[in-house]
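#struct-help
A.M.: can someone run this one for me? Single chain, 160 residues.
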Amino acid sequence: MNIREATMDDLEIISRIHVDAWKNTYTGIVPKEYLDKMSYKLQREKWIKRLFTDNSANEKMFLLETESKITGFSSGHIIDENSACINTIYFARNAQRQGYGTALFHYTARQLNRNMIEVWCFEENENRAFYEKLGGVLGQRQQVRLGDKVLEEIQYVFYR
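D.P.: on it. Structure tokens below:
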């Protein structure tokens, strides 16, 4: 297992993992029309803009490789001198539930190097138990609109 910072050359496979993870994980949570509009090409363009063109949030992306193959990724940004946010953490389906998520989460948190790390996830996402097992404390709630549906998001907070 190897974890490193992502480059633009990695974005094609990262976009595939991202879109596939959304379609596998959020079916029944996120509106079908929203998921149907997702594509590898569009997601790659979003990541190029977000990380390399207009990175106003100074977001960093890290990827996890097993056997020299990218199997997952995370991204995060610093909020202020005390806090940071892990924005994404997704894996290819065949790399889930093997301990890689825990390793990548801790690596990302160390790289962000803040006393408090937050993560937001859909309340309906049963995989949020992952953050609970890592010791996340429930924080705030917010609503987000995706397509014609308003989803509840919950925050998990981790303290060093």
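A.M.: thanks! The first strand starts at residue 2 and ends at 5.
D.P.: also worth noting: Strands lie at 2-5, 60-66, 69-78, 83-91, 116-122, 137-146, 149-159.
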